[in-house]
Amino acid sequence: MLDENIRSRLNFCAALPSLPAVAVKIIELANNPDADIGTACQYISMDPVLSAKLLKTANAPLYKSRRVATNIRQAVSILGTHSVIVIALSFSLSSSLIKGSRAGHSASFDHDNFWRRSITSALACRALGEKLTLSFLDDLLLAGLIQEIGILAFSAIMPEEYEPLYSAHKNHDSLLKAERKAFGFGHDELGYALLKKWHIPDYIALCCVASHSHPGPKSHGPTLQACVAASRYLADYFLSPQETDKLDNVVEAAHDWLGTDCETLIEVIKIMETGLKSIEDLFDINIYGSLDAAKIMSEAKDLLMVHNLAKIKDLEEKSQRDGLTGAYNRLYFDETLLREFHLSAQYKLPLTIAIIDLDYFKQINDSYGHAAGDALLTAVVGTIFEQIRQDDTLSRFGGEEFALILPGTTLAASRNLISRLKDSISTINFKIDNDRIINITASIGVASNEADTHNFLTPLDMIKAADTALYAAKNSGRNRIIEWHPLLPSFKL
User: Fold this and answer.
1) In the 8-state DSSP scheme, what is residue 396?
2) CA-angle at 332, arms to 329 and 334, nearest 5°
3) Whose CB has fewer CB within 10 Å in the chain, the N or C terminal residue?
């Protein structure tokens, strides 16, 4: 919260540039819902530089107009009265503030970087709006441009206290936290106070504050403040493309604020790439200096593509896993066994499977509750994972049953591994809430597809055989391993 001292310093700070008369008139128009085209043209025409910029804007690729504007009235006709006023305000503010900050700030404040970031945010904000088919593109441009104006205000009213803090925090989230800790308020609040002092329309000023808060419900759709918030992270990355972790921040912010994915961001970058030259020309600034903008954009798209593929892979992996234990699920087991079974048949390779059933597990659930039972299942799976090989597949078969696929493994070769599994499960000392230790054992049925022993016709035949062996292990006292052979009594699944 700003105290009266800070408000006073803000109101009477000589280092903060005053707005030119034309900008003041344009702000009045922006706050007047009934502003007409004639009045807008009159005020804009008072400033030849501003008039030239608006004509250039109306004819820029950014606005995709098929008509050519040769005067202000035609520009207004192409862009619309509201858009012209907002764009004029953007140019007027940026022009006066850039000149004023360069003249009034100490040498330690990197005003060039500040304005490059501001204009990059404006470009990103508008590009997000265009991709999301929003109607208020020029409001996005303005809001993106001035969202960090509080940093400029901080540097003006308390340069000695603020600039070391600003220099030490290149990440704007950490900068905001540091400001609040040091001064009791951040550049979002100070920026809002400055925008109110200048009578910037409330919907713009408020969104600049709200964009520094936490994301709201996405059910509201992409809002002005959400686009502004995401644009901040896009600007951070594009000005420091070598810091690839900042791209992760972009992906996270876009998802949290807008619910968008990497594919959408790639399209946003394409729009930014198209509009970059226009924005630089309109604001008389070179955002990237000597850096290769096309290369930066291309690398960003490539990294996002990799990020997207990694995300898809992660989602695919999660869809294949049992949510409780982390073992693969039954569907994945069936698919894997089918594939390995065909490979085994085609290339005459051995294949062994084992079905593992935890003995008397229902008693544990009944005695100690399902939470304790779930925790024990997770502990068992962790123990099994420690024993098996990288190419082996462990799946949750159902309830307290697990299935293990051992590709390229003969029955003889599987014995040591499966025996270790059984023994390691029996040595688990599982502690429950009252410090009581409970133990569990496992019964295991094994079936192998080998040319010199038996060839099963289908994967289901193998499962039936392993289940028959498991049934025999449980019937003969549990906590043991039984290997299937034709003389075992059949068990119907």
Assistant:
1) E
2) 110
3) N
